[in-house]
Amino acid sequence: AQSVSQHNHHVILSEAASLELGCNYSYGGTVNLFWYVQYPGQHLQLLLKYFSGDPLVKGIKGFEAEFIKSKFSFNLRKPSVQWSDTAEYFCAVNARTGGFKTIFGAGTRLFVKA
Amino acid sequence: GAGVSQSPSNKVTEKGKDVELRCDPISGHTALYWYRQRLGQGLEFLIYFQGNSAPDKSGLPSDRFSAERTGESVSTLTIQRTQQEDSAVYLCASSSRVGGTNEKLFFGSGTQLSVL
Prior knowledge:
Order of helices and strands of chain B: EEEEEEEEEEE
Largest sheet of chain A: 6 strands, mixed
Shape of chain A: globular
Number of helices of chain B: 0
Structural class of chain B: mainly beta
Shape of chain B: globular
Distance between the termini of chain B: 33 Å
Largest sheet of chain B: 7 strands, mixed
Oligomer: heterodimer
Number of helices of chain A: 0
Radius of gyration of chain B: 13 Å
Largest interface: A-B, 24 and 23 residues
Structural class of chain A: mainly beta
Strand content of chain A: over 45%
Low-confidence stretches of chain B: none
Mean pLDDT of chain B: 91
Strand content of chain B: over 45%
Helix content of chain A: under 10%
Helix content of chain B: under 10%
C-alpha cells in the first residue's frame, strides 16, 4: 500500500542545534512532496513543497528539504533551530499512482528547549 | 470566507448517536479533503471531493461514515451510531484542485469529537 513514513515521533533539541527529520514514501512514479507544520494552537500550514527541478527546496523560516529519488526520501532540515520552531511537522505526498490524493505521515513532534 | 471554516469546533456525544460535521472551504476551491487525527497519531485520510463528486472514498473507516458536498462548496461528514474509537479531531482542507503542481492545502481548525 502507498504510504508515508516519518522516522521520529518525538524530537527534543536545544536552541541552535541542527535539525533533520526523516520522511520516506512508497509511491512509484512522479510524486509531489510537502512538509506541513502545526504550531501550538494554530492550523496546519504549508512549510515547503517540491514538484520538480532542483531537489533542494527552501521554505519559510529557514527550513529546507532535499528530495532523493533513489532513496524515496524527502528529509526536512534546519541548520539552527529556535524555540519558536516547537511544533508538529508532517510530511505529505501526492502522486498519480495514488489518485492524486494527499497522504500524510504520522507526524514528528519537535520540542526546542530555550 | 477568508479561510476554511469548520463547525462545531467541539462536539461531545453519546455512543450510538449520529453526528454531522460541517466544512466551509475557501471560496472557489474545487478540492476538499477530510482527515482524521486521533490523539497522538498522524493525519488519516478519509475522503476527498473534486467538485461535488468523491473519486476516492477509500479512507472511510466503515459504512457508518459518509460525506457529501453540494454546490462545490459546503461539505458534511456524517458519522452514524458513533463509537468511542471515533473520538478524534476531524480536519477539513481545501485546495484549488486535486494533485498537480499547484496544490497547497489550506486547513480548518478542526472539530474535536468526543464519544462518551
